[in-house]
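Teaching assistant here, posting this on the class forum so everyone can see the example we discussed in section. The complex has two components, and the goal was to see what a joint structure prediction looks like when all of them are supplied at once.
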Amino acid sequence: MSEPISALRRARYEGFVTVEEAGLQGMVQIRGDFDSEIFTRAVSSAAGVAMPAQREALWEGRQGLLWMSPDEVMLLCPYPEADRALARLTNDLAGTHHLALNVSDARTMFTLEGAGLREVLAKLAPVDMAPDVFRPGMLRRTRLAQVAAAFWLRSDTRAEVICFRSVAPYMMELLSTAAATGSEVGLHGD
Amino acid sequence: MSTRLPTGGRLTDRTYRVGFTFNGKRLNGFAGDTLASALLANDQVLMGRSFKHHRPRGPVASGAEEPNALVNLGEGNRFEPNQRATTTELFDGLTATSQNHWPSLEMDIGAINTHLARVLPAGFYYKMFMYPRAFWKHVYEPFIRHSAGLGKAPDAGARDADRYEHFYHYTDVLVVGGGVAGLMAAKAAGQTGAKVLLLEQTAHWGGRAPVDGGLIDGQTPETWVTSVLNELHAMPNVTLRNRTMGAGVYDHGYALGYERLTDHAPDLDGPRHRLWRIRAAQIVTATGAIERPISFAGNDIPGVMLASAVRDYLVNWGVSIGDRTVVVTNNDDAYRTAIALKKAGLDVPAIIDARNYGGGALMAEAQGLGIRVEQGRGIAKVLGGKRVTGVAICNQQGEGAILDEIACDAVAMSGGWSPVVHLWSHCGGKLDWDEAGAFFRPRAEAGPTGADGKPFVSVAGAADGHMALASLLKDAAQTGTVAGNNAGFSGQTSAPDATDVPEKPLEPVWLMPQGARYDLRMKAWLDYQNDVKVSDVQLAAREGYESVEHTKRYTTLGMATDQGKLSNINGLATLSNALGEAIPEVGTTTFRPPYTPISMGVIAGEARGPLFQPIRQTPIHAWHENHDVHWEPVGQWRRPYCYPRGEEDHAQAVIREVKAVRQSLGLLDASTLGKIIVKGPDAGRFLDMLYTNMMSTLKPGKCRYGLMCSENGFLIDDGVVARLDEDTFLCHTTTGGADHIHAHMEEWLQTEWWDWQVYTANVTEQYAQIAVVGPNARKLLEKLGGMNVSKEALPFMTWVDGTLGGFPVRIFRISFSGELSYEIATPAGHGRALWDLLYAKGAEWNITPYGTEALHVLRAEKGFIMIGDETDGTVIPQDLGLDWAISKKKDDYLGKRAQARSHMTDPSRWKLVGLMTEDGSVLPEGAYAVAGGTNANDQRNTQGRVTSTYFSPTLGRGIAMGLVLNGPDRMDEVIEFTHVEGFTVPARIVDPVFYDPEGEKQNV
């Protein structure tokens, strides 16, 4: 069997924030009725975490759920396990109207590490990144400069960003430029 | 002469010398200087030439309002024209050149214009350049472009050497302006607990209060500013940002801040400018006030300056403009300049006060210092050419008969102060005319309103018309508190005590002397930057200009880089006097952001070079790049157009690629095609509505070509639909259509058929898709092994999942070329490896990667339409002979009703046909078929147009498709098509399918 590769093969940049392509990442796109207990139970048990609230990201190790819209969540898991999670979901939701797809290859994930990550994101996204407003566990689907993206905070010093795979080189350049040493805004962070 | 005094200059550090050049001359200044103060310290008062008359000009102001002292700054990749010397902080190595003169600043041929002033009146451009019409393009415009304009454009080859960025910021209260009012307002707002952002355009806090003096809580303004700054720095909810101009106020509390990070120190790392994109619940503008010039003859001669600017240069930078300064005023404030000059040991021969009643306590103080005060007098004219040599004095009430001449080398003038209402007005704040101060001030209850219908902008301090320190601080404390409260916080701050000197009222002076003769009026400048004089505005009024907006454009009053910061009120007053109307009746021109020009670079932000635009790359992008690809932009994707080899040009490469596909084997990166999953119990029903043909009857495992129309009936997209299972369809869209067709689906689902059980997902990027095309396609797939791709196992228009050569794939047996063809989808992470394997294993059949142009030729030879070529938003499927793909059985589909309307069923709609030139040549793109006679516009009538045209390597001749009147009924008829060279090309109407009309090749 062929070995898949991620878009940028873990490219890395160190500025006042460290930017890294996270490599292969399992992602299962799930749409359904959040009011249905069958649906939420199936999703939760496939992901190993509770259903996230609006604009929330929940995780447990490498498993997690991202709130994407009022009828959509994204399941995170190790890349090789996405098909298994999908099969389990499909099985549990047989007969329930839903959509579940392995979209692990459609997107690229980046990590941002460092105290200044709020500034990096605030240069690119129309989001209030103040520490008392955007807290760990919160997620935004928005844009970074000219491309669609979602990001969430794992902690005050670690964020994860996803975008479509085709614009991964743009995103890498964008995040690196925003994280370049000397361009600190001096507002959020240290 | 202007010079540096032996002591003084609260902003300069005399221990640190800074070297710079002006017009190539090496000069020195001190750290803390502006370019203007440093030039003045070097007796360089002459800094530029005016726009129209090329008059010699020096600075008239000391800050952002400066109209004259504009320079070309920097060199090469850092060259920038029209930079204000008054706001340019001096740094070591700065290079500046003056603008708008030839051959030199001192000797300018264009200055002849000043003697032609009588033939360059208001509206000169409109009057002169109207006739003869043909002269505009070839004579007038080139001439104007050469002689007009201020700074030079950068060299064509120059590229901005700096970086720029944006920064999004959210705050409860934004305070614009870091003078004493802004500091007070920020403190008051901050003490409510609100998040506060305070912006100051200069490098220094406190505004002009430290120069003007007074006492705040018994302290000098400077001491008070330092202690408030300390308090603000200690407040975690307050952010201070100097060198950041509040550039504009927009709807919904949106504001722009323009931060200049390295202009004062180009060696610093990091971006040069940062654009703060601010969202604030409340905005307080504490933007201060600007002093007005007085309109008297020769008020533009270098050495005539605003009284406040003379004071600023003295106090802030230790620079005197002249040894002998005459002060001319209509208010008490200018006395401060006379007093300051006198105390610095400089001579003030006279204060010319236009008021018969003179001034108050400050006048007494000046007189006490021995300064002569002339009450009820004015300046008839300034004497001198490139520098002031004296003034001629007259009665303010007269016509300018000279009473006396006073020798001097500088004139400090003050016509009163105008609040800076720009930011208040940007988003619609209304103004009232204040009779006492003779200025427009914000009408508090008529500010720009937010979503709650209440004003979100308030004004503090001098910007609100509070010119005296005590009332200014009280107003600022109150405004800051209210802004915090309106943002949802509570708290109260009291204003400090301040002591003001009692002043006598100002007397409006719009012309000096009030009855000035014409020869004086035509030397009395209103707008320095555009050379608009009192006589020009009066002429415009006589010629019938009543609207201030029209007058602005006719006379150019208040245009260009300073947008009339000094000239507007004087110009309005002049216009209203000429019209015999009150000033508020005439009104102001519109205040538009930005407050002063901001760099183009900061608007672009990071979007330059590789970040100019995102380029979408398929998983196979790098392979193309390594194989001499010629790219074609398709949406934001880059797709291979062709892959020239060796000496081949593009046309030759396309021919080779087409032949390889027809004769053996081709390989195409089709990853960009849109792929949308549609799933649910109602998915079939939904697709029946979206497509013109029937999709619900498609069997799992099968594929069907479909057409999608807008609700107006026009064809918007096409593609192959595969049914994956009972509930699930995969819809292929065009490359450019993926996103908007997905949005189109969601819109209908969310707004119209919200109760249908359907989910969609755009999975375009999940897969790399590779087309293996040509007579040897099957052999290649069989060589990879793992799946049965025979005609029987995988017939035309079917699909199958499996493992091909070790890759997880879904193979679609579909063809856009007319050849045996497989489109292989694999998860994107496998895409490059699968392509490499196919390319390597296909070598024995001379496998040939082909690009979009070969793809187009192949489809055109087969008569397949292309969205965007055969369609242009006005074409319905019936025009293209696609009636076979329109279901007659369905009750409805999007576009059905529209297609039944009379214009859509009109038999005279142009219809698709094939076209073959008689001589085998290729018809020009977009050429029209001519018909007899001419239309109402004297243009030839038309009867059709070319939609696609190519050289067909397979047929060895040009082929085309086009829409032609009654085309399908006119087979074999020859019609004429236009050619750009002027002649026409005969072409025969034929069937659009040029190649393999029976479809045997694709069905093997």
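For the discussion questions: The longest strand of chain B covers residues 164-176. Residues 524-586 of chain B form a domain with the Arc Repressor Mutant, subunit A fold (CATH 1.10.10.1100). Think about how each of these relates to the inputs above.
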